Amino acid sequence: MDNASPALIGPAAAPLVSPFRSRARRVQWPLVVLLLSIALTAIAAIDAQRSVRNQRRLADRALREYASFAAWSYAQHLALALDGIGREVLGAVNHGDNMHTSSPVPTAQDLASYLRWDEACRCRRTFVGPSPEAFFAIDLRERSIGVDVNGAATSAEPIGLYRSAASPANRVSPEVEPPSGAVLTSAFRDWLLDSLSVRVRSRPGLNRGFRFVIERHTGAPRIVAYTLMLLAGDTMVYGSVYSASSFTRILANALDSPGLLPDAFSEGRANRDVINLAVADRFGHSLFATRTSPSAGLSARVATPFASDSLQVDAAVRPEAAGSMLIGGLPATGLPFPLGLLALAAALSVIAVVQIRREGELARLRAGFVSSVSHELRTPVAQIRLYLETLRFGRASTPAQREWALGHIERESRRLVFLVENVLRFSTLEQRQPIVGEAVDPVAAAREIIAEFEPLAHSRRVLIELHAVPTPVVFVRKDALRHILVNLLDNAVKYGPPEQTISVAVFTDGDRVTLSVQDEGSGIPVSEREAIWRAFSRGSTSAASGGSGIGLTIVRELARAHGGDAHVDATAGHGTRFLVSLPTAPSSATRLQ
Q1: Is the pTM of this model over 0.70?
Q2: What is the average pLDDT score of the chain?
């Protein structure tokens, strides 16, 4: 008569449909929504980044076009400046396509006399550009060269002054070494004769007007301006020589010239504050550059004719001025924000997914807990009803039978009380209130609790043995000690084999008293010896035996609340041995009441 029949259990035996199960199924929908939100955020971030890249591409294209215009404008202003400089110093001997018919033919010394007169210094000087280092005149028919050196070119006199050293000694032939001045070296004169003769003879169409070439074969580079004058018998080449520093000033002045950039482009700023610029010859040798060279990515290059040479002009809009040239300014890079937004959304979604998984797992555990508790409660209730009906209908006719039935009722009532107390105790685990402990004799308390529990153990023919030696008192609540030992005994009876012997021991371990309970079951795997202490968790070897999964959680929490601890003895041989240590002095723990 230990087992209740289904007819007696009645509606109480109907399966319980837990709302947690349907809730666990609904957990998938938030997960789908979160994954969809991640996908939409990723699409939005990618689209935003694509838009930013397109805007940046358009902005870079606009800046390159601005730079291209600036380089073209500089090339035009430089061409005008060079034409003005050439016209100022060589215009008197340039007849265009007309032939020079008057006599005499101008010499190199005559060129200085064609410069404008300045009453301030009562001298001839240049006003448009720097003063040349020297003038020269080449007779291509006779292959002779005449040179006139500027005596003021290396003095402290004003820039632009030309003080002619006109004398017969200056009219030298290629065979006669000049008296002084590096500009009159034989190598330089040879280069003038050879180079300009080839240029004029081979490409006459490129030599109209005023031309400039760069000489780099005799040490420091020099810039040579020249023009042609047609004669009846042949052609005269007249020219002037400038130092590299003088030509650098020409290039710098062209950058600073007004009107180089439109007002809408510069907004009243100096040209150097708007663009970076560099000028090099056709071989890449730098002739002039602003303080900051143009960056390679957003620069534009223009090649301007420079006699038979070419000048390479590189220009780029300065970064600090680029924003004011574009409507709305430079677009932000956009990379950190969309990627940061995507990373944040992904992180939040991962957290949400983890939380949802935890909620789903908790819902599953709670559903299992409700199902287990319902089953655990139904069993003693069904047993109590069965034996009450036995007594009510007079089926126990003798005093011994009635006592037997009452004993079963008492046993199942105690089991019911233990279950209800466990659930109530579990519900108060999270309440953090001060503990008021009391001095308790652990041996006497263990003996009393075992005597109370023995009727439940006898139902499975289990023997409980107590092995104890005199120990100090422990400072715990007596009901807490009862919950600890009852849960350990119930766990041993429930998951151990029938007719086993459960050994309970109380002994001193240092400054603590240890309570041990060992059964003769199959033991607990090492991988599960920590998991079994978590709420609603049961070991794989005991899952089929029922149980609510909160008993061991209550044991450890109560032990730790009093300053002790609980664990599985790893050195135990056969079966499972639980050890609970309790302090022999008042604990300062303030977790549970």
Answers
A1: no
A2: 77
